[in-house]
Prior knowledge:
Order of helices and strands: EHHHEEHEHEEEEEEHEEEEEE
Amino acid sequence: MSLAPRAVLVHRTTEYEELVARHGTHGQAAFFLSSRGRDIEEVAERHRRTRRALAEVTAAIPLTWRQSRVERADLDRFLFAPEDVVVVVGQDGLVANVAKYLAGQPVVGIDADPGRNPGVLVRHRPADAPTLLPGALAARTGTTELTMVEAVADDTQRLLALNEIYLGAAGHQTARYRLGLDDDGGAVEAQASSGVLVGTGTGATGWIRSVWQERGGGGADGGPRLPAPTEQRLVWFVREAWPSPATGTSLVAGELAAGHRLTLTVESERLIAFGDGIETDAVELTWGQRVRVGVGEERLRLVG
């Protein structure tokens, strides 16, 4: 007997809720903000818009479906099921936060505060939910499959991300490692830098794009061309590589097609790898460990 579909609403604590939790009451939070030249009503109004969006989406869930809610901080402890339809109500970054915990479930991105978010991943309004939710169950109809990036360490630790993976020192201090490419004849280069970024086409709207622009935006110097979100290709950049008698700067940017890997061998006491800006969920790496980064097998199924 097959289970009824389950709508999983993913949301995050609002700024207003965080302020009240920290200061105890609305009045104390208002006093704190006023002492810094801000009005709590602005924050409270965004909170109300988010709550209205959640209520409207909840009301649109078909009566025959099951439903559940999960806050962003609890994602690593939540068990997603194959029959789930994941409904992200919030910001673009919240879709990236949930992506690595999924295995092909369709994701509906609902913009809780239109005008404040770019809407790259939360593409819909709460009023669209009555049509989107039933349609999300159709076999890959109306979905966009977004490429993801993965890092796999030699001790089997694995990290998956929708936007980008950062490899470097905690606190973005100097990282020492050896860098190599699968298709470069086995050549490697010892480097000292502030870390390596490997990103997808979805990530090309954020951190990766800022580094790409600093390098000239793939102009006449032959820099890598940014991929499309659905393209099975990644770009990578070394941040602030430092030349010295022991370290080089010849491998500082490039592309990774599907099946190709960038290999980093740690030559520091401790490096980390984290995805989509979540440093609290990092893979720990120590001297001599090797980590390989490339296009992930999983893809995010985004509705609409």
